Amino acid sequence: MDASTFLSAPPRVGVYVCHCGLNIARVVDCGAVVRSVQAMDDVAVARELPYACSEPGQQVIKQDIEDMGLNRIVVASCSPRLHETTFRQMMRDAGLNPFLLEMANLREQCSWVHMHDPEAATRKAADLARMAVSRVRRLSPLHPQRLPLTKKTLVIGGGVAGIQAALDLADSGYEVVLVEKRPSIGGMMAQLDKTFPTMDCSI
Amino acid sequence: MADAGRHPRITLLTLSEVTDIKGYVGNFHVKILKKARYVDEKACTACGECARVCPVVRPDEFNQGLSSRKAIYSPFPQAVPSAYVLNANECLGHNPAVCAKCIAVCEKGCINFHMSDEEIEVTVGTIIVAVGMESYDPTELDEYGYTRFPNVLTSLEFERLINAGGPTKGEIVRLSDRRAPRSVGFVQCVGSRSARKGRSYCSNVCCMNTVKSTLVLKEHDPDLDIKVFYIDIRAFGKGFEDLYTRSRRLGVRYIRGLPGTVEELPDGSLRVAVENAATGRLEFHDLDMLVLAVGIQPAESTRKLQEMLGLQLTSDGFFLEAHPKLQPVDAATRGIFFAGCAEGPKDIKDSVTQASAAAARAMRLMQWGEILTEPITAEVVAEHCIACGRCAQVCPYNAVTVDKKKKTPATITTAACAGCGTCAAECPTGAIIMNHFKDIQIREQIDTMLAENPAEKILTFACNWCSYAGADSAGVSRLQYPPNARLIRTMCSGRVAESFVWHAFQKGAPVVLVSGCHIGDCHYINANHWTEKRIAKMRKKMEKLGIRPERLQLEWVSAAEGVRFAKVMAQMEQLRQSVTAEEIAETVRILCEHKDTRPQTDDGDA
Ligand SMILES: Cc1cc2nc3c(=O)[nH]c(=O)nc-3n(C[C@H](O)[C@H](O)[C@H](O)COP(=O)(O)OP(=O)(O)OC[C@H]3O[C@@H](n4cnc5c(N)ncnc54)[C@H](O)[C@@H]3O)c2cc1C
Ligand code: SF4
Ligand code: SF4
Ligand code: SF4
Questions:
Q1: Dihedrals phi, psi of B162, to nearest 5 degrees
Q2: Is the CB of B362 within 6 Å of ligand 3?
């Protein structure tokens, strides 16, 4: 879809509430969360999924995108810090701009931290999902730029880790600048006699 | 080591430290200070003539001070580069040519007292942080008598002592009388797993290092009496249990319990008092030598680099990875990776594994020779800009250009913009659109959150890198806290505009919390300074308007501070309960009347 048709197309939102096995569903009433978003403007479909991030889970979403012409997606599951990249890739695969996705954090910031108050957790989960819907309706597609890059790596510290990283990179054809504050590389390992588990000498 | 020294694609800079890093993934601009070696690195053949004639004798750091070196010296026999190095602070020649003996004997003329420090600039696409660790200094643990009793050593000193290349050529002797010990004790968890002194975490390598040392000792002298005092032995790695069993089979005694006190006997031996957890009895063990298995702590330069690169640390002080399971070698900042003990205590195998992983991650980013930028950047709507210059003033990346005198509207260099949103929050006319975090997008979240029962909710703005991650970390640790908070994620706390907060209060929010990275830890250099200033200003305004300023809170929560996040949530709930319905109604009335704080309804940047 090009930008002009996109802007004119009204939002059609799909909302997917993930159980994360029992991680979310044990505490949050996921059915209630689905119901709370169903009546919102522009929501075309809302469903529960056992594992949204799994292959079958993503397949359901992609199928809905195709069948119902969805153009924005809300996944109410774990933290976006964990799976935002997963679902953005799914968006790309389904032909949508990856920035038309919004996640609601029902696991790290809800079911896991309000285990003893399922009702309040469900209310919070519904709010988070509804907030995500309001936001996703207002999102615009974004397009990254391509910029030139320097094929060179700075390695700070010349202990065994820095040396290994520098060698792997250099052997693969990349330039490396290895910076060591002491007069010699080697780090702590250079000071050791024999090392476990092989019991051979360190340098 | 030698391979790294002579690799055609590795530029090795020793005696060097990074002093400044600017830019972003793909093109970091790095400044490095290379201190003068005073010896020509290429020409020196490491013949050692210079050191032979140098009159200055100093303790040798490499041998933990157990031997001496000269003011001009080789760091250690296998050093890379192998060239000698001159310590200018110790050298006499630096005082008006009183010495210069070394210069006289160096046939190749490598030594030059006038060599100066060099500043080197490079541009790189990626950075691997591998600054390693420091071993714990047990002097503060008075009960073990380290530094008071010559025959109490650290495990690192012991490493040098038993090393064939070390000060005693690998001969184990007591430092007090140079006699071979007949009994040696090891104390585990020194500076580790302690809430009192040292660090609270397990240092990962000291158990196996001790097991290794007992085997080496038994090889030297099968009759040696060896005792290990421990809490529990952690031999979880591949092949580790084997070594441990072998050590026990050779007669090494493992005694559960850490010494309470260590006393020195007249002959320099040590009397160790320990409560044996197996028998429950207090025991005394007389030993010729005692080795303290010291723990591992973050390298000294960790903090400085963390600030320079805008990275995060764990509560233990090591670098924090982007995700503990799925991105264990990535920093949260794109293009920066961790390897080795910089990320946490680990052994050589794990350090090497992580280093290879970091190299692979760096290559994955660089291999196409170009990089896709994050499109979450700011844009100026020129018609609305009054060229006041505020945005250029606050941008941590100097990404904004505006000519105040000529009144030319602001422009943003997209490639330099990191997307913190501070400019958009500070612009007085709303001329800046912060993509993906537009005013309208955030206002919609606020409206939905506060549509029903607003008085029960705590509106919390959390920055992506620290506070939001801190909230996640509370979840991962299953810390329970009151369910009233609703988080709105922004990339940086700098994005939280005044108008968002007024809008929330006008919609009936009892409490608004703005949270971000600690000052000094901001992912966007120092954008959170502007957050701090903004909140202070707003609280003053609230006071003037007759709104309780405490209802607007600012808290710094790092990505590792799940515990702190949960605590803050409990405090916020207490605060919320103190806000009455009348107070909220009054606030709504005040804000609707006041022109700066009236709710925004236009869809300006939608
Ligand atoms: C007593 C002891 C015994 C051990 N025994 C064993 C063993 O038997 N087997 C085993 O597998 N592991 C052992 N270990 C662990 C092993 O030493 C580490 O796994 C390994 O050294 C980690 O390598 P590294 O490169 O991460 O860090 P380091 O070895 O600490 O190297 C870091 C390097 O970075 C440099 N550096 C620091 N800051 C800067 C800066 N700002 N700029 C430039 N350079 C900088 C340092 O000078 C140093 O050269 C032992 C550790 C200790 C303390
Ligand atoms: S590795 Fe062993 S000695 Fe070291 S801190 Fe952990 S338990 Fe203690
Ligand atoms: S969003 Fe932040 S980095 Fe980008 S121009 Fe504005 S202040 Fe600068
Ligand atoms: S802060 Fe706003 S009005 Fe002022 S120069 Fe920047 S864009 Fe223009």
A1: -90, -5
A2: no
Is the ipTM here above 0.95? no
* Helix/strand/coil for B136: coil
- Spatial contact of A15 and A46, defined as CB atoms under 8 Å apart: yes
Amino acid A2: pLDDT = 45
Residue of B nearest to A126 (CA): B449
The ligand whose atoms approach the alpha carbon of B495 most closely is: 3
Chain B's closest residue to A123, CA to CA, is B483
Collapsing DSSP to helix, strand or coil, B181 comes out as coil
Q: Distance from the CA of A178 to the center of ligand 1, in angstroms?
A: 15
Give bridge partners of residue B135 from the DSSP assignment: B296
Query: What tokens does B77 get?
Result: 């026999």
| pTM, rounded to two decimals | 0.80
Among B residues 275-294, those touching chain A with beta carbons less than 8 Å apart: none
Q: How confident is the model at residue A7 (pLDDT cuts 50, 70, 90)?
A: low
Identity of the residue in A133, A138, A199 whose CB atom sits nearest the CB atom of B606: A138
Q: Which residues pair with B18 in a beta bridge?
A: B32
The number of the ligand nearest the C-alpha atom of B530 reads: 3
Q: Which residues on adjacent β-strands are paired with residue B338?
A: B129
pLDDT value at residue B552: 98
Per-residue pLDDT at A6 exceeds 90? no
How far is A104 from A17, CA to CA, in rounded Å?
Answer: 9
Please give the pLDDT value at position A203. 63
Which residues of chain B are under the pLDDT cut of 50?
A: 602-606
How confident is the model at residue B94, as a pLDDT?
64
Q: Taken in order A200, A201, A202, B2, is the CA torsion positive or negative?
A: negative
CB B412 within 8 A of CB B453: no
